[in-house]
Amino acid sequence: MHRFFAAVPFGLAATLSFTAANAQQWIQVEAQPTLTQATDAAQGYAAKLPNVVGFNLPGRWHAIALGPYATEAEAEDARRALRAQGIIPGDSYLTEGDRFQQPFWPVGVNVATLTPAAPAETAAPVTEQVVETAMTPVEIDETPAQARQSERDLDRPSREALQRALKFAGVYSSGIDGAFGPGTRRAMSDWQAANGYDVTGVLTTRQRGAVLAAYNRVIDSLALAPVTDDVAGIAITLPTGMVGFDAYTPPFAKYSAKNGSNVQVMLISQTGDEATLGGLYEIMQTLEIVPMDGPRNRDSTSFTLTGMNANIVSHTEARLVNGTVKGWTLIWPAGDEQRREMALAAMKASFTPIDGVLPDAYGNGATQDIDLMAGLEIRRPEAAGSGFYVNASGAVLTSAALVAQCTKITLDDSYEATVTATQGGMALLTPTEPLAPLSVAQFDSHLPRLQSEVSVSGFAYEGRLGAPTLNYGLMAEHKGLNGEEDLLRLAMTTLPGEAGGPLLNGQGAVIGMLVDKDAISESQARTLPGDVAFAYDMEKLATFLSNNGIAVSASDAARDMSDNELVTVGRDLTVLVSCWN
What we know:
Elements: E1 3-5, E2 25-32, H1 35-46, E3 52-56, E4 62-69, H2 72-84, E5 93-95, E6 103-105, H3 127-135, H4 144-152, H5 156-168, H6 182-194, H7 205-222, E7 224-229, E8 234-239, E9 243-249, E10 252-257, E11 264-271, H8 274-284, E12 296-298, E13 302-308, E14 312-321, E15 324-333, H9 337-350, E16 352-353, E17 372-373, E18 376-377, E19 383-389, E20 396-399, E21 408-411, E22 415-423, E23 426-431, E24 453-458, E25 469-477, E26 487-491, E27 502-504, E28 510-514, H10 517-524, E29 532-537, H11 538-547, H12 563-573, E30 574-580
């Protein structure tokens, strides 16, 4: 049982004779497509500088570097000084040398024995000169004819690498085929224009190096590398510069953020069938890591989920594989789209289910909480309360305060609804598709005698129990404290989640709708006793419903119901109304 991290760049085999573990820094001066050009360039720099080393790069390119420097600060000081003197190009940059392979110059050099370069002289400040140099376009180092000649020396992988870098720069949108046709030429021209060069449609060697350097800096930060997780039974390329293995919490193998990246990856692995896949599809959409906005696609053997909000972009893919469900989720901070797309493309292209499936036993150590699933936070609504069905198509009456400011409204956590009408603290909800409720409100205009027992059916605990509760009290007065004719005062202790629920008489008929007690307290400008509650009466409800096209059904019940019968009526009639933002 192991997890294997292949410490090489994505799709390339490294032959490093040293590692970045030494924490040394290099200044990459430029990159050349052929060994001959790179050797000539290295010799030219070596005539002026003492610490020049040439390295092979992935994709058959060759880097000319200065170093090593003992610290990043020393390397940066040297880079600034040399740029200010015009000895190295303005687009030179620092690197730990993760992409450097076998050194080619000086011949026979042993990088491991090199003495760190001396710190740059600090006597003369160069800040102003550096700014001016950075603002001045780099002179073209080749004529167009020379640029075409050096371009002809590029092999196909090098041409494809340049096209990928131009696509990353946002100027190329065609295929990666290594053929420099009109689309590639146009991209080169656009890049030259955007960076202050003469527009020729043919990049010079130095310009190609700049395009590739910008792309490679992002590749280096991602550290895309193949990962084989034998426990989960998945092989995939991950941005190992952004995430590292954290824990197994079935059905997930969690790879958490590192280096402050705020990126997360979860590999999905569990035994199961089509029903398991469908269940996972529904569960994933309840998690905070899968925002509600974004496309969703599902068939009998696979699904994809994309969710986005102001903070994150999340993408999930899963499919059935020989009696297992295998997949992955990538969670990325919003606003970093280029790097996210590079990581996403690598994960899509490389995802490979292998033998093995994550055992349920690994979940024994996961945090247990009603608001967590496999250690992940379940998305909860902004607010949740009660409502009740008022017609056979599933229209729902509820409290207007509950749904006043909702991006999305759901009924029983399953069905979306919209606000059709509001008035006087009441709201009428219409489901986006017709429903078939088990029961519809039957109204009774006859009020119970004072001190008669009444009950309210509602989600007192805002859905945490999964079903409504029945709350008992007494009819205290047939009007409000200030004589309001459309209010009923109740002797009953209620919770906020019950507001919007139906008030029932002993025969199970609806005689009102419980009101949000806080709203009444505010209107009275005082705190009311805990055992005081209010409901809108049946006449107010019936008028509102009739004005909005809902025919009110009258109750024909002739006897009092038992407690069990009232519980059944309340359960079939009452709806959990959730407000999401």
